[in-house]
Structure formats: structure tokens, C-alpha cells
Specification:
The complex is a heterodimer of chains A (about 110) and B (about 120). Chain A is about 0% helix and about 65% strand. Chain A is mainly β. In chain A, the strands form 2 sheets. In chain A, strands 2, 4, 5, 9, 10 and 11 form a 6-stranded mixed beta sheet that branches. In chain A, strand 6 and strand 7 form a beta hairpin. The termini of chain A are far apart. Chain B is mostly beta strands. Classes of the chains: A mainly beta (about 110), B mainly beta (about 120).
């Protein structure tokens, strides 16, 4: 069974204090790993797709990396507006349907 | 209007009521999904539709009944719900079932409370 584990569950940072969120996964036939951002009362918003080990993607203060067992979302010099829950998901082959499995998320709070 | 739109945003219903959730997308996507999001739990896939045809029913109780009249609209009909069904119900769409480079586009969800 595909599994996605995110850590930590919650993270509190001072503004400007860089850190990383972790997403470890166990899946057969990885087709893609996704990062989403979810603000309170809203649906998840797509950030990145990573396909293979060694791949990196960047967007403003965020950088996502991928290995064969885990992905990291690095946040450099975060600002209060980066406060949100960050979700990781993996897509894998499951018969004829490419199943997507989500983690429980990391709730990030950036304090001014 | 672009993106994925869900209505209503909030819904309170009694256990004997019948209500429906609506989802609409104007992205030209062919696949649509219903997800349930509960506190401290991962997003739980409920139903998948591809070109209006249901392709996945993830062992969802029959008190939840989906309907997809066309590729742009998706409904979730609710009846005889239980308090444990209270959650955020999210609709999502993608170009096709492969999800692709851009992942899913989610709506803002319907916050459902069953009393």
C-alpha cells in the first residue's frame, strides 16, 4: 500500500528563519510527487511536481527536492504570508488508474 | 469565471435531510474528483469521473451519491448523513487521469456540518 508521511506535523518559525519540511514516501511505480499549499478555508493550491530523484524546482522562497525515498520543501527566509499547511502527494500506477495518495500535511506558522 | 467553483461554501444539515453539493470547472479539464478532508487525516478520495464516466468509487457509503452530467459539472448528493460525515468536501479537476505537470486544481470546498 502506498504511504506518504510528512514531518513535522507543525512548525513555527520566526520571520527570516529558514527550514525544511519533509515528505517520505513508499510507493510502487512513482509517477510524480506533488507539493500543495493550503490556506485556512480554502482548497489546496498546486506548487510543484517532481518526477525523478535529483530533480529540483523553485518558486520564490520555496525549493522542492526529490530523492528515491523522500522529498524536502525548503523555505528560505520565510515571511508571515508563507504561513499555511503544506501538503505532499504521490502519484503511482494502480492498475489502469494512477492513484494519488496525500500526506496529512505540515502546518507552518511564520511569526513576524 | 475561471478555476473550480464549489457551492455552497458552508452547509449545515440534519441527519434526515437531503442536500446536494455542486462543483463547476471552466478549465476544459476532462477528469473531476470528490475528496473528503477531515482534521488530522490525509485527503480521502471518494469518486473519480473521466469524460463523465465514473472510474473510481473508493468504497464510499451509499448515502453519498455522485452525479456528473458533463465534463464541467459534478454534484454530490447527500442523504441520511451521520455526524462523522462532517468535513470539508473538496472538488478537484485535472486535464486527464494522469494528473500531469500541473497536478489537480481544487475548489475552495464545502464545509459540511451534520447535526
Amino acid at each position: 500500500e502506498d504511504q506518504v508521511t510528512q514531518s513535522p506535523e507543525a512548525l513555527r518559525l520566526q520571520e527570516g528563519e529558514s527550514s525544511s519540511l519533509n515528505c517520505s514516501y513508499t510507493v510502487s511505480g512513482l509517477r510524480g510527487l506533488f507539493w500543495y499549499r493550503q490556506d485556512p478555508g480554502k482548497g489546496p493550491e498546486f506548487l510543484f511536481t517532481l518526477y525523478s530523484a535529483g530533480e529540483e524546482k523553485e518558486k520564490e522562497r520555496l525549493k522542492a527536492t526529490l530523492t528515491k525515498k523522500e522529498s524536502f520543501l525548503h523555505i528560505t527566509a520565510p515571511k508571515p504570508e508563507d504561513s499555511a499547511t503544506y501538503l505532499c502527494a504521490v502519484q503511482a500506477n494502480s492498475g489502469g488508474y494512477q492513484k494519488v495518495t496525500f500526506g496529512t500535511g505540515t502546518k507552518l506558522q511564520v511569526i513576524p | 469565471e475561471t478555476g473550480v467553483t464549489q457551492t455552497p461554501r458552508h452547509l449545515v444539515m440534519g441527519m434526515t435531510n437531503k442536500k446536494s453539493l455542486k462543483c463547476e470547472q471552466h478549465l476544459g479539464h476532462n477528469a473531476m474528483y470528490w475528496y473528503k478532508q477531515s482534521a488530522k487525516k490525509p485527503l480521502e478520495l471518494m469518486f473519480v469521473y473521466n469524460f463523465k464516466e465514473q472510474t473510481e468509487n473508493n468504497s464510499v457509503p451509499s448515502r453519498f451519491s455522485p452525479e456528473c452530467p458533463n465534463s464541467s459539472h459534478l454534484f454530490l448528493h447527500l442523504h441520511t448523513l451521520q455526524p462523522e460525515d462532517s468535513a470539508l468536501y473538496l472538488c478537484a479537476s485535472s486535464q486527464d487521469l494522469r494528473t500531469g505537470v500541473y497536478g489537480y486544481t481544487f475548489g475552495s470546498g464545502t464545509r459540511l456540518t451534520v447535526v
